[in-house]
Amino acid sequence: MKRSNKRRSRRIRRLVLLSLSVVLIGFGLWFGSSNAYTFLKGYLLFKTGEVAAEDYKIQDFEEIHTGDQTIEQEPATLYPERPNQGENIGDLIIPKLEAKLPIYHGTAEEELEKGVGHFAGSVLPGENDNSVLSGHRDTVFRKLGEVGIGDLLVVQTSAGEFTYKVKNVRIVDKDDRTVIVPKPKAVLTVTTCYPFDFIGASPERYVLVADLISSKQ
């Protein structure tokens, strides 16, 4: 009887271990494929060499931008029609990274999966006030941490080409609403989750704040 009970206990332990192994293997495959899918999306969206950094030099704008002076646009003249949710409104060029990224109107997951999202509650690029762009840190903005004060951000839309110079880099709490507050001049605010190598839901945001220094319409 005791020997039978021991055999039964061993079979139960083996069954439990086998079940646990299957669960762990299944989880590993799911986790790995999810990360691979995210990486693949990021690779397809973010490619270096899309633009030439030497085509966008800060020296080219020294006559336009001196000290704290910035370009101001007349309100409600750049875009006769406002874009619809999910519509492609242009491209964000990051010369330092030699990257060119599509911008979509809206910041829902549907837009962020395709590229950079434009916060619909903010003005459009080039207009006076605060234009806010967001993107995932593991896809379009996985190298955004290399961009800092003095670097250029260029937005191309149907209204023209707008060049901004980064004047401030901030790291804020994920619930910090100062990122989207109105500004008295044309500003571009670019945000992504932070830290860049954090696993899971990030507690903070990496924020670039840039002034408009050139407008070509």
TrEMBL record:
Listed Pfam families: Sortase
Signal peptide: none
Keywords annotated in UniProt: Hydrolase
UniProt superkingdom: Bacteria
Classification via CDD domains: Sortase_D_1
SUPFAM superfamilies in alphabetical order: Sortase
Name of the protein in question: Class D sortase
Organism: Bhargavaea changchunensis
